[in-house]
């Protein structure tokens, strides 16, 4: 079936809304389907009536429109989010670096996309998944400006012979995700003898979440950048400009300036304060459009008067049962560092720590960071492997220390990351796979490693 205009194509696409894949399929393929990966093929063959192909040209070539069928899910709080990133096309390292952004393989297929959203529900059979919304996506100027820099970041690594060091967290909206049946799916790169993982251009799940919410709900995600500002400046530069007037001011003074209550015990105070300093009305900087699209999370770092960090930095709690079942590239630990960027909000105390002393820090600066790929595939992977091994064999607990001391990889493990307890109290415990109970454990970054990040020496 061919379409002469985009209007004709969209009119046809919208007729799929409200229908399940089982209702659409006329090939019988859905009955034996075990993976959602070929749901797009069913739409191509049964709904639009054209043969599935793997050519580099857009699916509706005469209109320059690519078809993408992608899932979303409804969260417990009633909001919608993307279930996964939107994978676009395999990166040919040997050719991509020769192109410009305007002629890139990414832009060639993705400048206009017919996106068909279906709702994923865990308890439903695949054939009962229902298409909820169809729309034509064309990137805004601001988003394209960010994606241009993302593409350039990826291509620069290829040109530097570092395709094997590419990480999804290197970029904001457009990423280079691993794409292959296994770790053995590798490709040659032009300026190094190191084989690089096969990767594909993709839109981050966080970026897709913003897109989905825009089309499914009236929810308004507020941006802090001005119209067109991202065309000329990086997100780092804009953030530094916005925050710079507030550096060297005490936190209680900043709270006064934006009329919010200074309450250090309230964990939402700092994100609320930072959002206000950026000039938006959201209560949390993680709700801001640019942060949401780029999957940027914030973490506070408190320096002592001598500039040293006193505490390690915690991340996510361990789910011991999941740990034994997950693969490395699907693991919680891999995902929080391979796909996310972190905005470190740096504060400094002027008084030395003393038990019982209420100290109010000054706002010192910011640092936008993602973990380098060599650390992800090196020390982080080693931590995951060692933790799995110990849990599988059975964690050794010290009964004299209320089960706080154990043989999980501690702060001396590799000088970058470790496992240690993070619980409300000694009774806040979880059950290990072998039936033992242990205080809740968490993944941490070593304070010396965080110190190097803040000092630009990691």
TrEMBL record:
Hydrolase recorded as keyword: yes
Molecular function via GO: endonuclease activity
DNA mismatch repair MutH/Type II restriction enzyme Sau3AI domain boundaries: 50-150
Pfam families in the cross-refs: MutH
Keyword terms, alphabetized: Endonuclease, Hydrolase, Nuclease
Protein name: Sau3AI family type II restriction endonuclease
């Amino acid at each position: 079936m061919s379409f002469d205009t985009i209007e004709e194509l969209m009119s046809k696409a919208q007729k799929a809304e409200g229908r399940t894949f089982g209702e659409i399929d006329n090939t019988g393929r859905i009955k034996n389907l075990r993976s959602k990966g070929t749901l797009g093929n069913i739409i191509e063959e049964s709904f639009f009536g054209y043969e599935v192909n793997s050519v580099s040209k857009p699916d509706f070539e005469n209109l320059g429109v690519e078809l993408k069928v992608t899932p979303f899910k409804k969260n417990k709080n009633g909001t919608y989010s993307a279930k996964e990133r939107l994978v676009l096309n395999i990166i040919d390292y040997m050719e991509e670096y020769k192109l410009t952004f305007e002629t890139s393989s990414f832009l060639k297929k993705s400048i206009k996309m017919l996106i068909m959203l279906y709702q994923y529900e865990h308890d439903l059979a695949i054939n009962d998944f229902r298409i909820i919304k169809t729309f034509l996506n064309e990137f805004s100027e601001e988003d394209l400006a960010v994606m241009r820099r993302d593409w350039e970041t990826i291509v620069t690594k290829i040109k530097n012979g570092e395709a094997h060091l590419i990480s999804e967290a290197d970029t904001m909206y457009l990423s280079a995700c691993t794409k292959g049946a296994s770790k053995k799916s590798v490709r040659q790169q032009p300026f190094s003898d190191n084989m690089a993982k096969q990767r594909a251009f993709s839109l981050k799940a966080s970026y897709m979440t913003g897109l989905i919410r825009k089309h499914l709900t009236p929810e308004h995600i507020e941006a802090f950048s001005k119209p067109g500002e991202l065309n000329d400046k990086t997100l780092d530069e804009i953030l530094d400009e916005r925050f710079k007037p507030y550096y060297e001011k005490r936190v209680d003074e900043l709270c006064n300036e934006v009329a919010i209550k200074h309450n250090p015990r309230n964990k939402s105070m700092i994100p609320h304060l930072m959002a206000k300093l950026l000039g938006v009305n959201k209560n949390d900087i993680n709700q801001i459009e640019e942060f949401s699209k780029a999957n940027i999370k914030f973490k506070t770092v408190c320096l002592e008067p001598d500039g040293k960090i006193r505490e390690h930095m915690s991340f996510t709690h361990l789910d011991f049962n999941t740990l034994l079942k997950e693969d490395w590239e699907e693991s919680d630990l891999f995902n929080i560092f391979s796909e996310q960027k972190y905005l470190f909000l740096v504060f400094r105390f002027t008084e030395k720590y003393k038990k019982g002393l209420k100290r109010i820090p000054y706002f010192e600066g910011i640092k936008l960071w993602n973990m380098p790929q060599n650390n992800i595939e090196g020390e982080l992977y080693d931590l995951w492997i060692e933790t799995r091994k110990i849990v599988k064999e059975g964690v050794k607990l010290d009964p004299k220390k209320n089960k706080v001391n154990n043989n999980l990889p501690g702060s001396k493990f590799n000088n970058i990351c470790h496992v240690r307890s993070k619980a409300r109290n000694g009774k806040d415990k979880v059950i290990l796979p072998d039936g033992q109970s242990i205080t809740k454990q968490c993944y941490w970054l070593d304070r010396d490693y965080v110190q190097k990040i803040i000092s630009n020496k990691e």
